Amino acid sequence: MARKSGSSGEKTAIAVREAAIRLIAQHGFAAVSMRQIAREVGVQAGALYLYTPDKQSLLFDILKSHMEDLLSSWQDEAPGSDMAPEARLERFVRFHIRYHISRQDRVFISYMELRNLSPDNFVEIERLRRLYEDVLGEILSDGAAKGVFVMEDIRVTTMAMIAMLTGVSTWFREGGRLGPDDIAAHYISMSLRLAGAHVPMLAVAE
């Protein structure tokens, strides 16, 4: 996204993105106008173009920033390849759950608004998504090679597991019966089972 120079310009650019995220998550990309975003930020509609060329560029920036931050955040926590596959899968699941439930609007937009990207922008976001999917795929492949995971199709299992984990962001609410750590523990158990590992059943919290 093009940004006006200076600290004030940077703050406004961030405010534009955050306003767009809130409005798109609530109303959908097609229903949100640049004028609405400008009004939410508190600037004139014409001033918005100092920070983004158009609405398509704004959407692409939101999705690209989300994926790049996801990949960068994982790299900060990624275990070494010498760690057991089961432990690496546990690390991935905990990371994915924690990251996604703290960014519910961004996650919603990243999945629901892909269809509104231009073809070139779609290709770039899909490339970034595949990089993240490959992180899990490599963990599962390593586990299968070492005989601790048993799957009929690693790619299908990868996609099913990511869909399952990401789905938490659609229903998780702070103050619910289970906290993030409790949810992660259950999803670790389910993920290990989906990968074909033997794990004991967890006690269900009341």
From TrEMBL:
- DNA-binding region ranges: 33-52
Q: Which Pfam families match?
A: TetR_C_24, TetR_N
Answer whether the UniProt record assigns the keyword Transcription to this protein: yes
Q: Which UniProt keywords apply?
A: DNA-binding, Transcription, Transcription regulation
Superkingdom as given in the UniProt entry: Bacteria
Q: Which InterPro entries match?
A: Homeodomain-like_sf (IPR009057), HTH-type_TetR-like_transc_reg (IPR050109), HTH_TetR (IPR001647), KstR2_TetR_C (IPR041490), Tet_transcr_reg_TetR-rel_C_sf (IPR036271)
For this protein, the record's PANTHER family field holds: HTH-TYPE TRANSCRIPTIONAL REGULATOR BETI, HTH-TYPE TRANSCRIPTIONAL REGULATOR RUTR
From the Swiss-Prot or TrEMBL record, give the protein name: AcrR family transcriptional regulator
